[in-house]
Amino acid sequence: MEQQLSKLVERLRSAFGDRLVSAILYGSGAVGDWHEKSSDLNVLCVLSRLSTQELAAAEPIFRWWREQGNPPPLLLTAEEVRTSSDCFPMEFHDIQERRRVLHGIDLMQDLTIDRSFYRAQVEHELRSKLIRLRQKAGELLSDGDRLTKLMTDSISTFCVLGRHALILSGHEPHWKKQETVEALGKAMRMQLSAANEILAIRAAANKRSKADTRALLEQYMSEMDALVSFVDKLDR
Fold it and tell me: Which of 40, 75, 104 is the last residue of a domain?
């Protein structure tokens, strides 16, 4: 991991020179929770300007970084970092929480995230994902296997949003899905039995009968709707 990061920074510095304001590693790699076979190395690359000239210089670096099995670096200008926290409060909050400066200035240190925008984004994302879950479920309700896959695929996103709901409600956030669901249940004062069961199915790849799958979906949607209401009632 360290070799990859060193080579990336070297190439970024060579390509951009003093236009490279900072390079910041964020996510699991920044806090020692990185696993070679299952984790990405996520890097925020901040430049003083971004034009097609910078994109052309980035192309071979990004292609090489992709070949190492990583997502392309997130490209922003310093001005965008300073002015976009109201648009991407969840994303910037996560970077603030788990980051490591590889080069240059730590622009995240003094970045202020407005709570009202943060809460609104979490609620918006939750409502959107719940609506999308219903839409997709309506297309395949009679197919138990595909319905199960829909739920196991969606639970990760709900856990991420649930972690942000914990932060907003003043509770300790968790990064592991099972711990997030447990903490949410306590904060919401309800049993999230469907979410727990979906996580168990996801881990063991178990199959269920069609009737059981529909019942599980019903409970799952009810729990996610309760999570939406929980966030909606938080202080603005």
Answer: 104
Point out the domain boundary residue: 104, 129, 159: 104
- pTM equals 0.84
For residue 98, give its domain range.
Answer: 2-104
pLDDT digits (tens, 9 = 90+) for 122-170: 999 999 999 999 999 999 999 989 999 999 999 999 999 999 999 999 9
Q: Is 203 exposed, middle or buried (0-12, 13-18, 19+ CB in 10 A)?
A: exposed
Mind listing the pLDDT tens digit for each residue in 196-211?
999 999 888 666 555 5
Which segments within 69-147 are labelled E, that is strand?
74-77, 99-104
Number of C-beta neighbours around residue 200 at 10 A: 12
CB 101 within 8 A of CB 24: yes
Closest by CA position to 4, among listed 34, 33, 31: 34
φ/ψ region of 24 (left if φ > 0, alpha if ψ in -120 to 50, else beta) reads: beta
pLDDT tens-digit map of 124-136: 999 999 999 999 9
pLDDT at 37 over 70: no
Tell me if 62 sits within 8 A of 8, measured CB to CB: no
Taking the CA of residue 225 as centre, how many other CA atoms within 13 Å lie in the half-sphere pointing to its CB?
A: 8
Looking at residue 71, the DSSP 8-state letter turns out to be: P
Q: What DSSP character marks residue 191? A: -
Backbone phi and psi for residue 163, each to the nearest 5 degrees, phi listed first: -60, -40
